[in-house]
Amino acid sequence: MPVCGSVEYGEASAEVRAVYDDIMATRQTDYINNFWKALAHDPVLLRRTWENVKQVMAPGALDALTKEMLYVAVSASNQCPYCIASHTAAARKAGMTDSIFAELMAVVAMANATNRLASGYQVEIDDRFKPA
Amino acid sequence: MPVCGSVEYGEASAEVRAVYDDIMATRQTDYINNFWKALAHDPVLLRRTWENVKQVMAPGALDALTKEMLYVAVSASNQCPYCIASHTAAARKAGMTDSIFAELMAVVAMANATNRLASGYQVEIDDRFKPA
Amino acid sequence: MPVCGSVEYGEASAEVRAVYDDIMATRQTDYINNFWKALAHDPVLLRRTWENVKQVMAPGALDALTKEMLYVAVSASNQCPYCIASHTAAARKAGMTDSIFAELMAVVAMANATNRLASGYQVEIDDRFKPA
Amino acid sequence: MPVCGSVEYGEASAEVRAVYDDIMATRQTDYINNFWKALAHDPVLLRRTWENVKQVMAPGALDALTKEMLYVAVSASNQCPYCIASHTAAARKAGMTDSIFAELMAVVAMANATNRLASGYQVEIDDRFKPA
Amino acid sequence: MPVCGSVEYGEASAEVRAVYDDIMATRQTDYINNFWKALAHDPVLLRRTWENVKQVMAPGALDALTKEMLYVAVSASNQCPYCIASHTAAARKAGMTDSIFAELMAVVAMANATNRLASGYQVEIDDRFKPA
Amino acid sequence: MPVCGSVEYGEASAEVRAVYDDIMATRQTDYINNFWKALAHDPVLLRRTWENVKQVMAPGALDALTKEMLYVAVSASNQCPYCIASHTAAARKAGMTDSIFAELMAVVAMANATNRLASGYQVEIDDRFKPA
Question: C74 and D108: CB-CB below 8 Å?
Answer without folding.
Answer: yes
